[in-house]
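Quick one: structure for this chain?
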Amino acid sequence: FSFCLSLSLGQDSRLVYQYRIWHPKPMQGQQMEDAMAKKTKKYNVGKENYPMFSFRVITGKDQDAVIRFTPRTFADRDKYPLRKAEMDYWQKNVIPYVDMSKDEGTSLWVEMKSHSYNGSGNTESTRYSEVTQYLVHPAKLGEWAELRTQLVEAHKKAGSKARFGHFNRFSGGKTHLIHMTVPFDSWADYENRVGIFSREIFENAHGEGTQKEWMDRVADILEYRKTYIREYLPDLSTG
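Got it. Here's what it folds into:
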């Protein structure tokens, strides 16, 4: 825990991502999204408070839920607190469509920049992103950092066009949970994406046979690995 936290909040610290997932009541997904869109337009778009990004989960157990997160610096969290009028609007107009029995509250994340890579030439938001959740054994976080550094080194050496980011939760749940996101704009792009764990890319950097050894080490330190895909919702976002 201490290693992961120091890594996350030390040299890698840029923005804090405040994250929450909202599940609609049965048959009320569209009403929930419409209410969120109105709230976003009223309180977030063009306002000097904080940006908002929203995604609909389209695969897995949380399908049709909406993920909303806002990236801000630690200082901005002091500068732009949530206003009472905004909270009241949300409670009155959005919460009636939300299944609060599935709510897990707010969590806070930071990007692990030294474990992220972008050789695509594109820094813009994409329509979709694949999210892989890794729950790392708490005693193995040092080994996890070593393995992820090797992965980034391989892509840098190859000059690959892959794009992926790693994010660590530091509050609001288990702090040894890591998310890896892989953005893509279309299903054709998804089919043809650069393999993050490509044997050719990895062994070109680290030597023959190293990719299997690397994969085995990753498997040994994980408590679970889950993947889902989410779709960007521009009407529920600030840009």
